[in-house]
Every structure is written in structure tokens, then in C-alpha cells.
Amino acid sequence: MASVLETRPAATAIPEAVPAVPGTTDGFHLVIDALKLNDIDTIFGLPGIPITDLTRMAQAQGMRVISFRHEQHAGNAAAAAGFLTQKPGICLTVSAPGFLNGLTALANATTNCFPMILISGSSEREIVDLQQGDYEEMDQLAIAKPLCKAAFRVLHAQDIGIGVARAIRSALSGRPGGVYLDLPAKLFSQVMEAEAGRKSLIKVVDPAPRQLPAPESVARALDLLKGAKKPLILLGKGAAYAQADADIRALVEKTGIPYLPMSMAKGLLPDNHVQSASAARSYVLQEADVVLLVGARLNWLLSHGKGKTWAQDKGPKKFIQIDIAPAEMDSNVAIDAPLVGDIGSCVAALVAGMAGGWAKPPVEWTGAIADRKDKNLGKMAETLALRPSPMNFHSALSVVRDIVRDNQDAILVNEGANTLDFARSIVDMYQPRKRLDVGTWGIMGIGMGFAVGAAVTTGKQVIAIEGDSAFGFSGMEVETICRYDLPVCIVVFNNNGIYKGTDVNSRGGDVAPTVFTKNARYDLMMQAFGGIGVHATTAEELHKAMAEAIASGKPTLINAVIDETAGTESGRITSLNPAKAAIKK
Ligand code: ADP
Ligand code: TZD
Ligand code: MG
Hints:
globular, binds ligand TZD
């Protein structure tokens, strides 16, 4: 093992491409070299002690360093990058408060099964462990551990290669998720021989190896599917992440089975696909007899696979579940045919097993779905055509729907309550991995982080459809968007508050807790940083502003004035609010 030659004071303010002593390297350079060796070319972060020089040197070494105004958004950008690329997104923060700010994003990424690595600088171990009160003292490793997939600390420069490799493999293998990497300040200035340093680095080979399903599991799943009278395929964001697009399409089209995409699986097949059952969602969930889950958990978003949503009173459904995490099976209801493996391999095995011919589902089933779809889509088209004044969610979203149809390559970021629920059902997606939203937690605050992450990673146009409350969580990052001149068009659905803007405090005095400043001009925030701000009060103005934003690719924020009475409490999940048992006078 290479020896640590000496410990130097922190590097000078001027970054150097190579360390001062020829033939040596140091902790700073080894971290950068380890990331680059593993094809990681972007860091999302926020500088400060002890990682300021790391950001400078990374930039000097040709990495993209995207600097944010708050670490949570840097973390969310990293998570979006991880989801879109199957490479862990990197978020870099300072110690204690910076680390904690990034931790929410790390926990959220883990919950969503997105691969990311939070790298935080930390204070001196000797002082932290004796609780002697260091600058930004905190036992970060211990705090991170229960909130992510894995957490590691590197104490010696010669272990940086191992630490980075373990972080990458942990984030990507099996069920993807967040990993924490703790780098104490002293590590960065440790010096070792350059050649020994180079040899200590690891290029991770096959970090997410294919995991083939057992043949008998495939046969069991096919048997069950074959016997179904009313089969249904449910696609989740795991299916989008897996990048097995062609195999998934082949499975759906070969079987002729109707499918439902979860929100981030929209576009895996175009939403206007004849087999999409989205417009008859309640009907198919209630009526289906065999359901094939592909990278979707039976959590709250699917009513845990039971109750009224699934018409449990009509008898139990049979479930086939494809997932890489074996323990996911039976988490909420019995899984009759578990198919454990990576989605690409599992779906390919099912398709291969159908080679002998496959009977399409009964026309009574597909016909009944088509009838309901026609009826519901007809009703929706009438509502979307209305042009009320002020705009409501439907009229504004009819514009977004048209713009997305005309720009199918664009990535849609979406958060809010009503703004989220209506957009998810109204705005069709046409390509895989083009929709990023509040995910498994239903968390507000992902907006600008996801938008920056998506724009930087793909270079494509981003359209962020934001509730006015949702936008507030990350609104300061419009400066980041302007600074890097990113092609992001933000539309703030401004209904003066959380869910709606009409609540009153019956006692007078302070305004109600859900209500914001009336008639706020979010567009002026964008103008403050040199971006384009537009105030839109009609569908025509909204359409013009969005079309111009996309044509120019310029950072744009459109303040879309929405009827403050139009929303409902908690959007579509009103029922999750605890019942009020008593009215206290
Ligand atoms: P949704 O919210 O869209 O329903 P979930 O996040 O609940 O989706 O489910 C995603 C599931 O996909 C997780 O259980 C995860 O283990 C699984 N998953 C992620 N990537 C893969 C993969 N490559 N192969 C198999 N399963 C995967
Ligand atoms: N804090 C966090 C981090 N996540 C949350 N989900 C919430 C608070 C609670 N919450 C929701 O679930 S939606 C929402 C909040 C505050 C905002 C809804 O208001 P909006 O959307 O303006 O974004 P609409 O269109 O007015 O409904
Ligand atoms: Mg609102």
C-alpha cells in the first residue's frame, strides 16, 4: 500500500491542475480522478470549507461544476441526473448544515430508487468524536446511514479509489438509491506518490450486472397471464429507469394487454397509444383479474393493492410482479408470481416465452375499456376547449398539453397539488423518461433542482409546471438557471396559495395558513437575473409565451394567473387528510 508522505495545509485559493510537488498527488486530485475514471463528468454542489478548492480543481480538470444557491436543489439535480442516465448523480456539500440541506434530496432519491452520491466534507474526526465543538461539527456518517442505501467514510488518500468505487456500486447495483460519502477536511491535503495514487483508483466494472429471472418464475408468470380474462400491465418509474424501452414495448404490443403508466412511466409508450388505459384508470383497476407490475411498488400511490380502488369485495386479484428487490414481493398483498431480476432481462424472458404464439385478451375486456376511454376523453376534450376568465387548471393545461405535443423531446418537471394532479392526467407524454415529478413521497421542492439536473444532463428543453407554493421551495434557483443560461421554461400556476387562494381566517388578523400574497408577480423574479419574465392572464398569452421560450431556449418564467377558487384541498388526495373529529369553538 502506498504511504502517505505528508499532510499539507489546505490548498491555496488558486487551483492548480497538478499538485505543487512534482510526482505527487493529493486527496483533492484523487477524488476528481476517481470520479472521472468512472465517467462522471458533472458535480452539482455548493462550495465552502472544506470543499471550495475541490470545486475549483474539478472545473480546472474539465468537469462541469454546477453551483447552486441551496444544497437541496443541487441534490435534487443529482438525483434527476441519476434517474436519466443510470450513472449516479453527484452532489457536493460542505459539512453539517450543507450536509443536512443535501440529505433531504439523498433520502428522497433513495425513496424514489434513483442513484445518487452525496459527497460532503466533514470536520476533524478527533474533535467531532470527542464533541469538543469544531467548526460545523457533526457526526454526518451516523446521521446519513439510516436515510440512504449505504454510507462510507474515507480517512486515507490511498483509500479514495475504493471509497468512490464502493459508492458507485452501492448506488447502482440491485435497487438503485442514494449513497453518502464522507470526506473529512484532512483527507484533501494528504499527499502521496502520483503513480501509487493512480494505481489506487478503481474503474468499476459492470456496476449493475444483469440479474436473470429463474426459468420456473418466468413459466409461472406466463401461466398466470395466459389464464387471465382481464389482464392489465402496470408500468412504474423502475421500468422507465431500466431503459428497456424496446422490450417493454414488445411485451405490451405482443400481448395486446391494456396498460397503465404510473406518472413517471408516462411516455414509455406514447400516451395516445391504443392500448393505454389511462383514461379508464378506475375501471381497469377495479375490473382486472391479473395484474402485471413492472417496476412499480404497491404503495400508497396504488392504494396498497387493496380496498375500493381494486374492488376487493369482488374477490382478490392475482399479481405478477417484476422487481429487482426480492423483499418487495408480498409487501402489501400476496404476489402470486414474483419475477425477481432486472426489468430488461425479465421482460425479455416473458417475450421469449411467448414465441410459440400468444392469444390477445378477450375483446369484451379491451372493447369495454375502449368505450370508457372514448367517453372520458370526449368529456375531457370539451372541458379543455373552454376558455374561462381567469384561466382555470384545465384551460391553462390545455395549452401545456399542446406545447408538449409539439415538443415531444422536451422534459416536463411537475410539482404542486392541483397543478400536479391535473397536469399528470391532461398532459400526454410521448417519449420515455421525459417526466420528472414529486415521486414516491409526493414531495414539494424538487422543481428547480430537477429542472437544472435535466437541462444540464441532456441539453434538452425543460418545461417546469409548478404550483405557486411548490415553486417557492426552490424559487431562488432561477438565478442558477439564468447564470448557466439553461433552456428552462417555468410556468407558475399562480392561484394565490396552497390548493387555492380563498381561505379566510375566521378570527381576522393574520391571513389563513394556505393563502399567499395576492396577485404576486413571480415573472419579475426571473427578470431580476436577466431571464425572460412574462405575465399571462389568458390561454393565448400563455401559449405565445411558452412557444417563444422554447423557440429561443432562453430561461423564462411565465406567471400564469389561475382562478384562485379553482383548486381542491390536497388535489386528488383529499381523503388522506385526517378527519376532523370535533369542532372547537
Ligand atoms: P412508481 O412510483 O412509478 O409506481 P416505484 O418507485 O414505486 O414506481 O417502483 C419502482 C420499482 O422499480 C422499485 O421497487 C425498484 O426496486 C424497481 N426497479 C428499479 N430499477 C429496476 C431495474 N433495473 N430492474 C428491476 N426493478 C427495478
Ligand atoms: N412540504 C413538503 C416538502 N412537501 C409537501 N408535499 C408539503 C409540504 C405539503 N404540500 C403538498 O402536499 S402540496 C403543497 C404542499 C405545501 C402545495 C400545493 O400548492 P401549490 O399547488 O400552489 O403548489 P396548487 O395548484 O395550488 O394545488
Ligand atoms: Mg397554488
